[in-house]
Every structure is written in structure tokens, then in C-alpha cells.
Specification:
Helix content is about 40%, strand content about 20%. It is α/β, with parallel strands linked by helices. The chain folds into 2 domains: about 190 residues, inorganic pyrophosphatase (n-terminal core) (Alpha-Beta Complex); about 120 residues, Diaminopimelate Epimerase, Chain A, domain 1, CATH 3.10.310. The protein binds guanosine-5'-monophosphate and manganese (II) ion.
């Protein structure tokens, strides 16, 4: 079984590197720091590499240990967390490829199975929830610090326990964390509720531009690099914008484009029936059935027309 292999490889390794996807969210950072603390607990040398991440997550235990660059040696083992595609390893795929053994633990349906051992469960609402099983099998004690990191991943990827992927195990785990003294309400407020002023400004711009298309079944909005400069946006301040369209009555698909150095980053969300992961596969991306992303390198009007056209094909 893959999990047995993973446990054996972790037990055999001395120097381990943890990597996650670019523009990391709460699940990416929470999973990485939970794994970092867990591997330290069982006596490993561990590096966790995340070049940039939102300030929101600086409160997480051991966030000060995050490296911007890897060390100059081959790791015995590399673990990619919450990452469906090696191209998304934040420019650090060399550390992954150079490691003697490569493991991926993830929950993206579009995972390309790029590691030696792939523990991928698309039914899990968060990579952090899969780690509850992995860390249990490793014999790690899930203490308050590790629990806070895992909870952060679960809260962010389930939109605060509200998405369909939430299982009874999600609540059982959170109940255990409450018993251990993890302040669930405080973590919830920090990672989901509190909005920075710069993020609020980007939301205002995006709301003002939001268009309803196809009888209100599609919404479209966007943010440019100039907007981000103007408001002094921080890392991932655009997070949450795509959900605003999705949450409007009658909308099936919400489209959000963000200008990058290579065209536009696409974010799609759907409500009931459109598989946005399939749509994003056409734009060298992927993700989940109701939340996915990709990239398009065309001028704005053409990029907009192409993505709107693709989404239209899937509407009933
Ligand atoms: P977001 O719209 O929040 O950036 O991403 C939604 C989901 O799709 C996340 O689970 C994210 O990891 C995934 N995703 C976003 N962009 C890409 C991409 O370019 N490639 C792949 N494979 N997944 C992506
Ligand atoms: Mn995730």
C-alpha cells in the first residue's frame, strides 16, 4: 500500500525537504508546517521551502523556520504537499527531482501522479485532513501546534466547514483539537474572517467591475498588475474575489482573471454542475470539480473571450 511505503521511506530518511504549490494558501502552508513539526518530533532534519506567503499565516507555529531557498545538497526524501502538478512546485522542482525518493500527498482530482509514491485522495476536503491519517500512521502525537496548522488547512479549504467535501472525520478531528485546547474560533477568525485593508480595496475594484453574462449564470471580473500596485496589495490579496461571483444567486460559474508576468491567471468556481477542473485542464491548469485554476497568455480581451466561450459550453 502506498501509505505503508510512505511511512517506510520517511522512517528511513534523514534529510527531508517539504515543498508546496506556488501562491500557497492556508492548506498548502498549514500542511507544510504540520509536516515540518511532525518530522522534527520524530527526529528528522527537515527543510520547508516556501519563497513567499501571505502575512495572515505568520501566526502559525514554526512559520519562522520557513526557508526562502533550499540548501545546497541532495535530500534523501522530498515531500510535495497539496500540489497536483510538479510545474506548480514554486520554482523548486529541482529539489524534488534531485531527491533520492519523491512523495506526493495531495487531494487534487487532477493530480498528475508525478512522484514515486502518490498518496492522493480527491475525496478529502483538504490535504491537511489526509495528513491526520499520515501523521497517525507515523506515530506522531498531534499536539496543539501541529493541530493548529492542520486546522488552518481544513478551515481554508472547506471555506469554514461549508463545502460538500466536509466529512464526519473533519468534525471528529476538530472535536479532538478542541479537547486539546486549540482555539478553533481564534484560528477561524485569523485565517478566514479578517480581511486586510489592501485585500478589501482589491475586492472593491473587482466588485465594481463584475459583469453578469449568460442570463446571470456566469460572472466575470479581473484585477490588473496596476490595480495591485495602486492599492499596495500583498501576497494573495486577490484570494476570495472569485468566490464573490460564485455566491450570487443564480450564478453557476464565476470567472476571475488576474494579470501576471505571462498573461493572466484564471480562477474558476462553480456551484452545482459545471466541472471547472476539466475546463482548466484546457488552460494548462487543474484543481477540483468546483474550484480550479489555469493560465492564459493572450491580451486581455482575447483571454476574456476565450475563457467565457469555454465556460458557456458547459452551461445548461
Ligand atoms: P485558485 O483559484 O484558488 O487559485 O485555485 C483553485 C484550485 O485550483 C486550488 O486547489 C489550486 O491548487 C488549483 N489550481 C489553481 N491554479 C492551478 C494551476 O495552474 N494548475 C493546477 N494543476 N491547479 C491549479
Ligand atoms: Mn488544498
Amino acid at each position: 500500500m502506498t501509505l505503508d511505503n510512505i511511512i517506510e521511506e520517511i522512517n528511513n530518511a534523514k534529510n527531508i525537504v517539504i515543498l508546496t504549490h506556488e501562491n500557497p494558501d492556508g492548506d498548502a502552508i498549514g500542511s507544510s508546517l504540520a509536516m515540518y513539526s511532525a518530522l522534527k518530533q520524530i527526529g528528522k532534519n527537515v527543510d520547508v521551502i516556501i519563497p513567499e506567503y501571505p502575512k495572515t499565516f505568520e501566526f502559525l507555529p514554526n512559520s519562522k523556520e520557513i526557508l526562502k531557498e533550499g540548501k545546497n545538497y541532495n535530500y534523501d526524501l522530498a515531500i510535495a504537499l497539496d500540489c497536483g502538478d510538479i510545474k506548480r512546485l514554486d520554482g523548486f522542482s529541482k529539489y524534488f527531482e534531485d531527491a533520492n525518493v519523491k512523495i506526493s500527498i495531495d487531494h487534487h482530482g487532477s493530480n498528475t501522479m508525478f512522484a514515486d509514491y502518490n498518496f492522493v485522495d480527491p475525496a478529502s476536503p483538504a490535504c491537511s485532513q489526509i495528513l491526520v491519517i499520515v501523521l497517525g500512521a507515523l506515530g506522531v502525537v498531534i499536539d496543539k501546534d501541529i493541530g493548529t496548522c492542520l486546522l488552518t488547512g481544513i478551515i481554508t479549504d472547506t471555506g469554514g466547514f461549508k463545502y460538500k467535501g466536509v466529512t464526519s472525520e473533519t468534525f471528529e478531528f476538530v472535536a479532538e483539537l478542541l479537547n486539546k485546547g486549540v482555539n478553533v474560533s481564534d484560528v477561524y477568525k485569523k485565517v478566514l474572517q479578517t480581511v486586510s485593508r489592501t485585500r478589501f480595496s482589491l475586492m472593491q475594484i473587482a466588485i465594481n467591475r463584475l459583469e453578469f453574462l449568460e442570463d446571470g449564470k456566469l460572472t466575470f471580473t479581473y484585477i490588473t498588475k496596476e490595480d495591485e500596485q495602486k492599492v499596495g496589495a500583498g501576497n494573495n490579496d486577490y484570494d476570495g474575489i472569485v468566490e464573490m461571483g460564485r455566491d450570487i444567486e443564480g450564478v453557476e460559474v464565476s470567472i476571475f482573471l488576474r494579470e501576471t508576468d505571462n498573461g493572466y491567471k484564471i480562477s474558476l468556481r462553480s456551484n452545482d454542475y459545471v466541472n471547472v477542473s476539466d475546463i482548466c485542464l484546457m488552460f494548462s491548469g487543474g484543481g477540483h470539480v468546483r474550484a480550479a485554476g489555469g493560465n492564459i497568455n493572450l491580451p486581455f480581451e482575447q483571454a476574456k473571450a476565450k475563457i467565457v466561450e469555454e465556460c458557456k459550453k458547459h452551461l445548461k
